[in-house]
Structure formats: C-alpha cells, structure tokens
Amino acid sequence: MIAPAEGIAALERILSHDRDRTAYTPADFARWLESCPAVGRTAFFAELAEPAAGTDPATGSALLASLRETAGPRQRQRLLEPRVVEHIAAVLRVAADRFDAHTSLVTIGLDSLMAIALRNRLQRELDLDIPATVMWTHPTASALTRYLLARLHPAPAQDDAAPESAPAVASPAVPG
C-alpha cells in the first residue's frame, strides 16, 4: 500500500516528466536483492545492492578473520552460532530471543523461499558456496553452524593408507 504522502510525492515526480505512460510502485529493494543476489551483481543494480546487501562486508571479513584466529572448534561454534541465529531471525522476521540454537527451523516458520534467503545471506557473509538443501539437512542453527564450520575449517585429512601391522603371508599352493 502506498501512503498518501508517498503517493503525492510520486505523482509530482511522474508529472514532472513528459511521458505518455508511467507507472509507480514502491519496492523493497533490500528484500528483493536478498532473494536474488545475482541481480545485485549486475552493473544496472550494483548501486542498489551495496546498501541493500543485508550484511556489511567489513563485518563478514571481521567474522572470517576471527574464525581463522580462533583455535578450537568449540570457540568457533560459540563465535559463529549467534551470527547464524541473527540471520535466521532476520529472515523469519522474529526476535533472536524467540528461539534457541536447537529449535527446528521448520517449527519457527522456515519455508523454501526463506531457506534460499537464509542461504544467500550466509553465502555473502561467509564467502562460501552453500547448497540449497543445507537448511533442510541441518535443520537447527546449531547443526547449520557445525556444517558451516566444517566447510570453513575442514578437519585435517586422514592418511588413506592403513599402517602395516604384519607382512602379508602367501598362501600355500594347492595341488590341482
């Protein structure tokens, strides 16, 4: 709905141009670009995308730097989990204190479009490609945080070669 003052201002702008046809509609570009982040990277929409990105690049960089500097997985979890909860709360438009990190995202209202918006926010902040299905396979803030940390800080690879405990013994030939 267009507020009366906004409608009058829009009408004045429309009438100041000499055009045969003109339309006006209010748009929430921050919300739109949140669901379509690729559009924000185009030259035409780049100016709109910067203030509407939903996350401050400096905050994301600071978060990533803090995660790199933090030694243990539990400390990283404590650092990242509140930020994941903040993103969930923003996408669901609820206060972050209305749920905890172990509450199912579906029970607090996450649907498929919101899952995409949440994924897009997390991708932007963490500079990470996240599959669309992750919100369903990791359905709590805590599980999602563990998944993100595993992607950001993979565990050291285990040596695939099994240690040799005893030399192999050749079986005796069976006469035929």
Structure overview:
The chain has 176 residues and is mainly α. It has helices spanning 4-15, 29-35, 37-40, 46-52, 57-69, 73-92, 112-126, 134-137, 141-152. The longest helix has 20 residues, at 73-92. Mean pLDDT is 81; it is low at 51-55 and 160-171.
Dominant shape: elongated
Based on secondary structure, the structural category is mainly alpha
Largest sheet: none
Helix amount: 40-55%
Indicate the low-confidence ranges by residue numbers.
Answer: 51-55, 160-171
Q: What is the overall pLDDT average?
A: 81
Radius of gyration: 25 Å
Tell me what portion of residues adopts beta-strand conformation: under 5%
Q: Number of DSSP strands?
A: 0
Distance from N terminus to C terminus (CA atoms, Å) equals 92 Å
Order of helices and strands: HHHHHHHHH
Number of helices: 9
Structure in a nutshell:
The chain has 176 residues and is mostly helical. It has helices at residues 4-15, 29-35, 37-40, 46-52, 57-69, 73-92, 112-126, 134-137, 141-152. It is elongated and about 65 Å long.
Q: What topology emerges from the helices and strands here?
A:
Layout: H1 4-15, H2 29-35, H3 37-40, H4 46-52, H5 57-69, H6 73-92, H7 112-126, H8 134-137, H9 141-152
Helix pairs in contact: 2-4, 6-7, 6-9
Can you tag this structure with a few keywords?
176 residues; 0% strand; mainly alpha; elongated; 53% helix
